[in-house]
Amino acid sequence: MRYSKRSWSFIIGCIIVASITVVIFATKRPVIKTMALSYAFDVTDTRRLVGWADNVFVGKVVKQVGTKTLIGTPETQFKVEVSDNIKGKFNGTVIVNQQGGFNKFELILIENDQLLQEGQSYLFVTKHLKEENWNTLVPVYGDILIDNKEAKKELIDKYTKAYKNEIPY
Questions:
Q1: Environment class of residue 124 by beta-carbon count within 10 Å: exposed (0-12), middle (13-18) or buried (19+)?
Q2: What residue ranges are annotated as transmembrane (predicted)?
Q3: CATH number of 35-164
Q4: What is the pLDDT of residue 35?
């Protein structure tokens, strides 16, 4: 069976179009949007921040367990294994909610706070949301990445001192 030039042109044209389509969709990266928040208190003051929080603890992100949109903004939930409590009494694992997440091809970040990474440890400052049974962290100031044991000790010391001298909200 022999193909004409016209048939070969059609086949090669289809292959080129398919290849271009694959390249476009395979390399499509999400558009990143950031949103700003206004706070009712100075979140940079650890005594006020801890005074506002229900829980302050150190934990390791096990995995992402969900995404839910509340009030028009995606929020991402993570299972976190608690290692140290500073304020509150968590045991085992808890669900930490982070405002921001994916909305189709958009990544929405609050205050440019990057999404939590599986396998990483953080100091968390959270407020419990009873309706969802999760603990929402404060963007930027409520998810501090812990790089090593020394940094962990310094953060625990700093936030323990802040807890002892907290300024309730």
A1: buried
A2: 6-26
A3: 2.40.50.120
A4: 76
